[in-house]
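Crash report, auto-generated. Payload:
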Amino acid sequence: MGRLLLVTIQVDMHDRLALALQDDLTARIVRDGARGVLIDISSLELVDSFIGRMLGTIASMARMLDAETVVVGMRPAVAITMVELGLALPGVRTALDVEKGMEMFRGRAGPEDGPPDHDRLQ
Amino acid sequence: MIVSSEVAGLRSSEDVLKVRQAARALAVRAGFGLVDQTKIVTAVSELARNTVTHGGGGDATLELLEEGSRRGVRFAFRDQGPGIADVELALRNGYSTCGGLGLGLGGSRRLMGEFDILTAPGKGTTVTVARWG
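Recovered output after restart:
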């Protein structure tokens, strides 16, 4: 079984940066043969329709490349706002934190797996 | 009463970022809690992006309001773009002319409470939203 990519989004992203992340991530999935993508959004103060769509697109693209995506660390205020906005993130799995997100992959991962690669978006 | 007012240009996605950061600072000054701040900033992000992508750019006015002991925030987004022919349709969830999710207008109306739109084909669009603490 393959590796996990851990992406930590640490900045308030403008739209072009969000699109660049989408492109970089799909390239990395193929290059590293990743089977899972964990996207940590615990630093994000908002998820609007643009970022929501980006997360959905990443999950769809990753699925096409045989990788699963789990979005972790969503803040409660962000979740409340997304529901009121009407953003449901269909097809995107979530977990409360990185630890719980890793657990979701444990069933798939073999014993030879190393620690996940960690990308930071500064 | 308007306590403070500022105007910011909206031409690029970096400008959208600046306007939502200014909106956050204003919501904090108005005394909103974290959930309300998040709702306000998210609505501002949707509307500011609309101004850039649909309106071809424009500007935003950000105001801190006071009425007796209540404080509030008000934002107006103006563009000289093509305008909206059918406002009811544009407010419907899932309706989009650009391949987006179609949540911006209707969603920001739900998030803000006070919502007003002035538009006509060829006349540009002004969306004004407000929320009181």
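Post-recovery validation: Chain B has a mean pLDDT of 94.
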